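Q: What would this complex look like in 3D?
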Amino acid sequence: MDKNKVSIHDVVSEKDSEKREQKYNKYVKDVTPTHNYVLNTLKAFFVGGIICTIGQGFTNLYMQMGLDKETAGLYQIITLVLLSVVLTGLNIYSKLAKFGGAGTVVPITGFANSVAAAAIEFKTEGQVFGIGCKIFTICGPVILYGIFSSWVLGLVYYFLKMAGIV
Amino acid sequence: MDYVKAFFVGGLICAAVQIFMDNTKLMPGRIMVILVCLGAVLGALGIYEPLIDWAGAGASVPLSGFGNTLYKGIKEAIDKDGFIGVFKGGFTASAVGISTALIFSYIASWVFKSKMQ
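A: Here is my prediction, written as structure tokens for the whole assembly.
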């Protein structure tokens, strides 16, 4: 038998109360399910990497079709968002998210997923106060703080530019 | 080669965020906000754009790329229009991403039923 493992039987049969406490703590620690950090990280790496690679594939495709780099990048975003919304509607993205963790949250598809999932989930609460309000539940803060932080940074850039520093 | 770069850089950003998430238990919404703000700051420091030039979609697809786009849009608008650009460039640059997410999601709400229950 594994010497380091403590069974509940050991805990109960231990007479010395101090030792029993120690054993009990060890037992609780043993049976508490722990996140497998390494595995989670690897999954996030692969899922996130694959989503970015698919994005790169679309950018390359659109550039081959004769678009410039910037426009191709924008169509790539449109494509990824569309794919993410459809996968969200089909309830596939949530399954992917369970597996890929941050790998599905970090890419732009995670942003699109948060918008689409809210729109679909809250449509029973009405067009305005259901979909209209709730569609911004997660993307609203992202837009607010994104716009605000870049506005602050933009102000800094403007004044540095006026001062002739940049 | 650009596929390998996109895969590794995109994967590394996601892996780093996964480690951060596992250690802080922050919800995805907060993670997205942090990433966008971080992207804007890295963009302003001139670090993010070279990364996009090197890694392509590996750096532009993660939400930090979205933050960088916001800052870049504001900077370009300032260079073009002066002070009004501070208020103009952010939404201009992010228009495609935000519009498509909202429009497609709204259409999706007609088509799909909630499977949450």
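A: To summarize the key features: Chain A touches chain B through 77 residues (CB under 8 Å). The longest helix of chain A spans residues 37-64.
Q: Very helpful, thank you.
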